[in-house]
Amino acid sequence: MLPENMREFVDSWLVSSNLSTEFNQVTLQVMESVLQCQKQQMTSVDGAMFSPRLPRDILFVIGGSNFGFPLNLVEAFDCRTFSWSVICPYDFGTVKEATFVHSPRSYHGMVALNKDIYVIGGFSGHVYLSSCCKLKADSLTWENVTPMNTKRCYVGAVTVKGFIYTVGGYDGVYRLNSAERFSTETNQWSFISPMMQQRSDAGVAVLDGENP
Hints:
Elements: H1 4-17, H2 21-44, E1 58-62, E2 65-66, E3 69-70, E4 74-78, E5 83-86, E6 109-113, E7 116-123, E8 128-136, E9 141-145, E10 156-160, E11 163-167, E12 179-183, E13 188-192
Antiparallel strand pairs: 1-4, 2-3, 4-5, 6-7, 7-8, 8-9, 10-11, 11-12, 12-13
């Protein structure tokens, strides 16, 4: 049905237009149908679409190096619009090991797990890092994570079945063959069996893994 004020307007217009009764009825039916369709379209739109959020398909680029200087910049690429944007820059602060999550860093590992982006180890420009932090994608806020047992720059990182694995790297003195596993439930790192060869800058991949 037409809203009461709309019906009054249409009725008065039809009367003043001196049109036939049959035409008046058809006009009312058409207008009621149009308004009903508009109402259905509005109510069928999911309200969640209007809430601010990141796109579902998005790439994160965090930190890195430019002319030898570590970066504190976070950029995101929207795969739907093919556009880049700065979404959550770090705050410049101290580069002290394992204290601030917002210090610039490069040559770190990075993985996505449970809607969080983990930034692991790396190099601050002054010290090699064991510190870790995570960017919560839903709120775009940073949280500290328990540091690794070993400083690791040029570290390989991957997720398998809900765990984060880091392998090899460089601690500022030696290339490493050690590896660690992080549990999000306990917020702790633990050593796993070391690799047979010391290495850094290595690629790491998961074959037929199961991630949540």
